[in-house]
Structures
1.
Amino acid sequence: SGASTTLDSYEEGTWTPVFAPNGGSFATATTYTYIAKYTKVGNLVTANCYIRTDGTLDITGGSSAVRIQGLPFSTTSSNDYVSVNVGYALNWSAVPAGGYVAANNNYILLSKRETSITGNLNASDVSDLDTSGGAKNEIMISVTYQTT
């Protein structure tokens, strides 16, 4: 086969997703990872994870949207936005319904339904994390994006 059809890069591995606020920092936050894997073929990365907080989350000091930091590669600067699939979420005050990765970033910003199943998706907020009684905010996500 010709050079243009030859696979030049393939990689599999794990990554370390971390819950974080888009503004400031949490007073206490520990992310427990059930699974976090990625596959990179050429410049295309598919990453997935199933994570939760550990029940001792203190959101004091955090503001704005909820992030999942630590994607294994940054998106390209030419990508505008890449959508994120949320397959499962449990024990949130307001459950994430999706998310996105902006250009030239290595983190996911979560979004939620504004009102109901037919409502608009808007940025999540740190107050959407349930911090009562040792709650463990769980989420399972996947994203496919381009990197350099």
2.
Amino acid sequence: ASNSFAWRSDSMNVPSVRTVPVQPRSPDELLPHFAEAVRTPTSERHLEGILATIDPRIRSLRLDYADKDPFISVDLGLSERIPLPQAGQGVYRMTSILSDLLGARSNVCLIDEIERGLHFSVLKQVWRGVAQVALQLGVQIFATTHSRECLEAAYEVLGGEDPGGHIDFAVIQLIRSRNGVEGRVLDEASIEAAVRNEIELR
């Protein structure tokens, strides 16, 4: 399903919006996004550094070629580099997310089911990486999740590990009502109370 956004203002610039779908892109679809993301050495190091916190074996990623067909390969310290899909679903998913963030340079990025394909043990690293890129590029992130572990990891990183107060973190809870679906915004204090008292926020 495609998403459409409308924005009209006579005094403001139209924001650029990027959507990271829940279904992973095919390797061919991912290629141009990855190529744009690693166009500068700084972005390339950033992407590789974040991925290495998720899988410490990762040394580098690059565009490779076989029979004139390009593909993304990963150096895991083995005798040969391997195609990205063979590095695991979590690494593939994060490469896709980071390629969108670093390559598109959008004002707003929507990440659907951010935890999809990721082990719960790496969720804090994922949020740290996403926050780092968001702050560096000045992009606003909206992420959906159905995972309590993912929400708790987001709260611990975005709420608890931000001593400078650079990150604005809120949860938009969607609630079904007679009139359809209503949104309720929870601030950090409300999120903390819900997490501490194990109140369901999904």
